[in-house]
Design brief:
single chain; 9 helices; binds zinc ion
């Protein structure tokens, strides 16, 4: 089709105004003509997120204790997640299989919450009061004998798996966004927040977008990483095995793309607890702070920093428009989570309850890697922060992939 020169100019001006100048890795913003329709669809999708359902999915994950990688309880959790994904209609589940050898030089030796931090990872800077951080490796620190027994089996080197399913795009099945959270945990608790909260978020979004009356132009892969706590090994295995497969049609002529080209990677890791800076005595307030927010981070010291920052602002804007309770804040020090192995390849961000470096790294979450990371530790105000992160990601990803809901009455979008 030929286009009149004035239209080309208009289109070019619009593109220049709203699209990333240097990147083709982020889908262009929705066209004005479809913006109202998009808003209606996105609002309807986001409205399907429900606090009690989100809590129930977290609760379901906690039946497998801390889900430590390389244990039977971790494998049982993967089976359970896969069954859930299939039941949601995300039936094309697949698994990445890799081998993980325990690196004793990397093993954490701190047996309790013992270290007062002075520096933060990811380029961040610690300010103000700090509280002790560390990983609990002491079974006796878990007072509940049922959980102590459930978490008794320790990890051994060997084969590992992680599960994903994919919403296949109708017009661009060869391109996808990756939406992830890690399903493994540590600390002799239930890993309810780290990272049951992120895993449940990914699962709930998969459920809503897998409904038969929902279509997306581009594909979305929902993945629950394993081995995050050992050093992002599940995400690293995914990149190593699948980076080179991107965008290849297989079998040729089938219209099937086993690994669609990556457009962005969005990680969710610890979504619920934002009680503020520790007090001077190293304790943390009991209640969610009134100013709690969703922290969207990109890594300024990465090859895809520009593209990642643009993706972060798309999520911040989606939060402002569609999240019901808590705002989002963008930061530049994304670190120590499964988006890290992607950040030099594709636009990559993480969503969290706090910034990983300056906040979590300064002891703002007293349940982090501790026996107290249990479902019963959290209040609805905590769970609701996770739900708002889910609203943020669902709205942003629906916009980026052109999600539409087929109206059951009219049979039209
Ligand atoms: Zn985590």
């Amino acid at each position: 089709m030929r286009i009149a020169p004035t239209l080309i100019l208009t289109a070019f001006a619009a593109l220049a105004a709203c699209a990333p100048a240097t990147s083709t890795s982020i889908a262009a913003a929705p066209r004005p003509a479809t913006a109202i329709m998009d808003t209606v669809s996105i609002r309807a999708l986001v409205g399907q997120l429900d606090l009690e359902r989100y809590k129930a999915t977290i609760k379901g994950l906690t039946q497998f204790g801390d889900r430590r990688q390389g244990t039977a309880r971790n494998r049982a959790a993967i089976d359970w997640i896969e069954t859930q994904l299939k039941s949601y209609g995300c039936t094309n589940t697949e698994r990445i299989t890799y081998n993980y050898q325990i690196d004793t030089t990397r093993a954490r030796t701190a047996a309790q919450r013992s270290r007062l931090p002075t520096t933060a990872p990811g380029g961040a800077k610690i300010r103000g009061n700090v509280a002790p951080i560390g990983v609990n490796n002491d079974s006796l620190a878990q007072p509940d004998p049922r959980l102590r027994a459930l978490n008794t089996e320790q990890t051994v080197s060997g084969e590992r798996q992680e599960v994903y399913c994919t919403k296949v795009g109708t017009t661009h099945p060869d391109e996808m966004y990756i939406v992830g959270g890690h399903m493994d945990g540590i600390g002799w608790g239930e890993a309810a927040n780290d990272d049951g909260s992120g895993t449940a978020l990914v699962m709930e979004i998969a459920r809503i977008l897998s409904a038969p009356n929902v279509t997306t132009d581009r594909s979305i892969r929902f993945i629950l990483w394993n081995n995050e706590e050992s050093g992002l090994d599940g995400a690293r295995a995914y990149v190593a095995q699948r980076q080179a497969l991107q965008g290849k049609e297989s079998p040729a002529g089938s219209g099937k793309y086993p690994e669609p080209r990556w457009l962005g990677m969005i990680q969710h890791d610890m979504m619920m607890f934002d009680h503020g800076m520790p007090l001077a005595d190293h304790t943390v307030r009991k209640e969610q702070r009134l100013e709690a927010d969703v922290n969207i981070e990109f890594q300024s010291n990465s090859k895809m920093a520009d593209e990642s920052q643009k993706l972060a602002w798309i999520f911040a804007n989606a939060n402002e428009k569609f999240a019901t309770d808590y705002p989002a804040t963008v930061g530049r020090h994304m670190t120590n989570t499964d988006s890290t192995p992607f950040m030099d390849i594709v636009a990559s961000i993480s969503l969290r309850e706090n910034e990983r470096g300056a906040h979590i790294g300064a002891g703002w979450d007293p349940n982090w890697h501790q026996p107290t990371d249990m479902y019963s530790t959290y209040s609805d105000k905590d769970f609701r922060l996770g739900l708002n992160a889910a609203q943020t990601t669902l709205a942003a990803i629906a916009q980026l992939t052109g999600a539409k809901i087929l109206d059951k009455v009219s049979n039209r979008y």
